[in-house]
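Exam revision sheet. Question 4 asks you to relate a sequence to its structure. Input first:
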Amino acid sequence: MKLPLLALLCLLITSSCKKEIDYHQKWELSTMSAKVDGVLVQCTLATAQVNDEDGQISVRISGKKEINTVFSLIISDFKGAGTYNLSDNNKAIYLLDTSGSSDYIGNTSGAIKITSYLAKQYIKGTFEFKGENILTSTSKTISEGQFMISLVTVKLPENQ
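Answer key, structure tokens:
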């Protein structure tokens, strides 16, 4: 169950990076950072996607540093500000790709706390989790995670 989810998540992350999007000035306000085993990782790009399918809202928050270091937070049944415990429905992932070998850390415990949300404007919150790579049995502690992300509407070029 976890490997197909990992493959799908990696596919979504890499496919979303291939599309060119119009730059929006408010993106400069978007930030995301966390400590990975005590070492601060400051993302250079932070984005959020809010999807509404038949009244069930899901949120995906992503932060990226350099080419292959990624945080990804997924809330499946989003209800606004509040605490979302990590489970089968809510996910937190840390992906570090070095020298062509992926170090995928998926949550084993933790929470995402949305402290402020204004639809189509911004989402702000904190996160922390302990995670494990099930293939290598390595684990990491992600602490003091925080994000403030502008939820601007972007136009994708046609034919994408």
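Marking note for examiners. Residues 26-150 form one domain.
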